[in-house]
Specification:
The chain has 783 residues and is an alpha/beta fold. It folds into five domains: 169 residues, Rossmann fold, CATH 3.40.50.2300; 175 residues, Response regulator (Rossmann fold, 3-Layer(aba) Sandwich); 68 residues, no CATH class; 51 residues, no CATH class; 266 residues, Up-down Bundle (Rhopdopsin 7-helix transmembrane proteins). The chain has 21 helices and 22 strands. It starts with a helix and ends with a helix.
Length: 783
């Protein structure tokens, strides 16, 4: 402050012909003394507010206090007079309330931003499990509550929040130390003032609590107290925030030029000299109270000691933090006075555009107006201004306390936090510049539970914070493509999860193809069945004039063989990717053709019954003997099926569809039958025809068997009905291509059954026993 005032008084560009003076009052960390000093500075005699018995020097503004607890009563008092107060260190968010503190301004950021910065620091290092130790005062309570809210919003967790009593009672300190020792959190935020912190750190040192990363805040991060020898190893690797350090041109030389002989009336310099150099002045009363070790008391100060020889940890002339804030505060006051004094009448900010009359006693509220609106740049190029809440721009340095092999230590700037940074990234940290403590080879871990890898989701342990969890593998069809996901993501319907549940991949297309073994087998079986049927047809055609072929309606036998051959050929329509035409034709063509086959068998069965009963005398069935009745049976039975299919295709035509849900890892391309009722009606109708054929054939099984096919038809219908009755549950219990395979198998099996039971015995006689395929032989057997 003295340097800044001297610099201003020597600068002809600011407040020319006006000399600034100052008063200094040390409140000694006491709020009551700070209030007493404020009343004294305001010129109130005997500390009586609102009373002034004599003229005092003009007091422009008050710079300070350092502690927020000291600034609070001062700000309340000065707010009554609207007297400007610019603090260089008080940071609690409460001061931004202009209804409570209308005349308070500051050159340190609002603590709300420090809470935000601390939360982002935790995110950067992945510390989701932290502890907080706070002072039991407005600074600690308000700050820790803001910090707790910010940490909670980032989904991190707080293991504990302990409060250091203002009296620093030993039992309370021991309790907090024990908590720190058993804590599983390695990142501990010390949201305290330095006078509350030191007793706790002494206990931490005594109890040898190691492995913790102490996270500092602006109130103590650069305090000289933590550079004491017993604390060097304790704070090794610590990281935290400090006020932005900047350059003050000429200030380094000013600090090195300080000497007791140059300022004999300065009450601080000699005491500082004794403590800095470990000596005592022979004629200095302060030497009696200087805190020197026993071995140092015999050393006398000569005045020839050089400040340049002092270590940076003792006399830092490079990193100006609260110093820079004080410097800006003095300049803000001087700039506001300059703006007020250079006001031109008629263009002022007050009533009737008037200016302040500085020849009289300037009203505090007038100067307050100018300080609120001040804007300038320091010689180092830093902007100085206040927002509507009296707060400056928010900029913090991120410091890392590093210990070197020679036993010395210092804090190193490793990043910064800028609330006004462009691009949205407010915190920047150079991780390679950080030196952690010896117990940590890399970034320390401070988590309640280790991260769940991709493919797993976090399941919170019952009764514990959400940072304490166990990992559960995502269900099938779900993925977790990042670590520590609370919920798994369901794959789209056309995709499926990998075995590791880390990503979705497209489902494979599934339909019965000619290339796969199942398709090849069924295709081969269909060709074999078609070939055998064609061979039987050829044999019957070759021997069409023989009695065994002519028996029981030769034309129906040919029609039956052709329909069976077409049935097996149309099986191929079920193989391959379904198309619209394919889906519409395959069930209808199969239904009509197979119904024709069953109708032929029914007609043959009825022909057998009529033929043997028509031989009885006076039988009325003689008129039904011939081809008219069987042809009518086949035509009428097929016509009913054709009508059913016409209605089906008109009202509910089958179509191809993608079944995304029946199989997990496949998209089944299949035919939607359009109407399940129509499909089952088609099968039911064929079953009805087969059942009638079976019943009629069963009843006629004992007729003379020379020309009788009833026994063979009975067995063939028994096989056919058994196949299709087995088909129903098999069809309903399968999905995708296997449904198609089941239907093809049923068609081929029933065809083989009909061929084997009806035609194989006849072919056996025709080929191997031609003597039995004569009319005489057949008639002989009947005789």
């Amino acid at each position: 402050m003295i340097f800044a005032i001297d610099e201003i008084n020597q600068n002809s560009n600011i407040l020319p012909n006006i000399t600034l003076g100052f008063k200094i009052f040390d409140p000694c960390y006491s709020a009551s003394r700070a209030l007493q000093g404020t009343i004294w500075m305001l010129g109130k005699v005997k500390s009586v507010p609102n009373y002034n018995c004599k003229f005092q020097e003009r007091l422009s503004a008050i710079i300070g206090a350092f502690l927020s607890t000291s600034s609070l009563p001062v700000a309340r008092l000065l707010g009554l007079y609207h007297h400007p107060q610019i603090s260089h260190a008080s940071s609690i968010s409460l001061f931004s309330n202009k209804l409570m503190f209308p005349s308070f301004l500051r050159n340190v950021p609002n603590d709300n931003f420090q809470s935000t910065a601390l939360a982002q620091l935790l995110i950067h290092f992945g510390w989701t499990w932290v502890g907080i130790v706070a002072s039991d005062n407005d600074f600690g309570q308000l700050g820790s509550q803001n910090l707790k809210r910010e940490i909670t919003q980032t989904e991190s967790c707080i293991e504990f929040l302990e409060v250091i009593p203002t009296q620093n009672s030993r039992p309370s300190i021991l309790k907090i130390a024990a908590m720190l020792k058993k804590s599983t959190a390695n990142a501990i935020i010390l949201y305290t003032t330095i006078e509350n912190l030191m007793p706790l750190m002494e206990e931490v040192f005594v109890h040898n609590i190691s492995g913790k990363v102490w996270i500092s805040i602006t109130s103590w991060s650069v305090s000289s107290d933590i550079s004491k020898k017993e604390f060097l190893q304790l704070f090794e690797g610590s990281i935290g925030f400090a006020l932005h350090s900047g350059e003050i041109p000429g200030f380094k030389q000013f600090l090195y030029s300080i000497h007791p002989s140059l300022s004999p009336d300065d009450i601080f310099i000699k005491t500082f000299w004794e403590q800095a150099f470990g000596c005592k002045w022979q004629d200095n009363e302060t030497s009696q109270t200087s805190k020197l070790s026993e071995e140092k008391k015999g050393i006398h100060c000569t005045g020839e000691e050089k400040l340049e020889d002092l270590a940076v940890s003792i006399y830092d002339v490079y990193n100006f933090r609260f110093t820079l804030s004080t410097y800006k505060s003095v300049y803000a006051t001087a700039q506001a006075l300059h703006d007020m004094f250079t006001c031109k009448p008629g263009s002022g900010p007050f009533y009737n555009r008037s200016c302040a009359n500085y020849s009289d006693n300037i009203q505090p509220w007038q100067l307050l107006h100018y300080i609120r609106n001040v804007y300038f740049k320091t010689d180092a190029g830093e902007e100085v201004f206040f927002d509507k809440n009296g707060d400056p721009p928010t900029l913090y340095d991120i410091l890392n306390w590093q210990l070197y092999p020679n036993g010395s230590g210092r804090y190193v700037k490793v990043g910064y936090f800028d609330n006004l940074a462009k691009g949205g990234k407010k915190i920047i940290i150079n991780d390679t510049a950080i030196l952690w403590s010896k117990s940590h080879n890399q970034v320390p871990r401070s988590v309640c539970s280790e991260s769940c890898p991709p493919g797993y989701r976090n399941v919170v342990r019952q009764g514990q914070p959400n940072c304490c969890f166990y990992c559960s593998l995502c269900s099938k069809g779900e993925i977790a493509n990042q670590s520590d996901m609370a919920f798994c993501i369901r794959c789209p319907d056309d995709q499926w999860s990998s075995d590791t549940r880390e990503r979705c991949f497209p489902k494979t297309i599934e339909f019965l193809t000619y290339e796969e073994s199942l398709g090849v087998t069924l295709t081969s079986a269909a060709f074999v069945c078609t070939f055998i049927t064609a061979c039987i047809l050829c044999i019957f055609f070759r021997f069409r004039e023989t009695p065994i072929v002519k028996a029981n309606n030769r034309d129906l036998s040919f029609l039956l063989l052709v329909s069976l051959m077409l049935c097996t050929m149309f099986c191929l329509m079920f193989i391959g990717q379904p198309t619209k035409i394919n889906c519409m034709l395959r069930q209808t063509s199969f239904g009509i053709i197979f119904s024709t086959s069953i109708s032929c068998i029914l007609a043959k069965t009825i022909t057998v019954v009529i033929a043997f009963n028509a031989t009885k005398p006076n039988s009325k069935l003689k008129k039904w003997v011939g081809s008219k009745l069987p042809n009518s049976i086949v035509a009428s039975c097929c016509l009913i099926q054709v009508i059913m299919f016409a209605v089906w295709l008109t009202a509910f035509p089958p179509f191809p569809e993608q079944d995304l849900k029946s199989k997990d890892e496949n998209i089944v391309i299949q035919c939607n039958e359009g109407s399940n009722i129509a499909f089952w009606c088609m099968l039911g109708y064929m079953g009805f025809l087969a059942s009638i054929s079976f019943v009629v054939a069963f009843l006629a099984r004992k007729l003379p068997d020379t020309f009788n096919e009833a026994k063979f038809i009975t067995f063939s219908m028994l096989v056919c009905i058994s196949v299709w009755m087995s088909f129903v549950p098999a069809y309903l219990s399968t999905k995708g291509k296997y449904m198609v395979a089941v239907e093809i198998f049923a068609i081929i099996s029933s065809t083989f059954g009909l061929l084997g039971c009806i035609f194989f015995p006849k072919c056996y006689i025709i080929i191997t026993k031609p003597h039995m395929n004569t009319r005489d032989y057949l008639l002989g057997r009947r005789m």
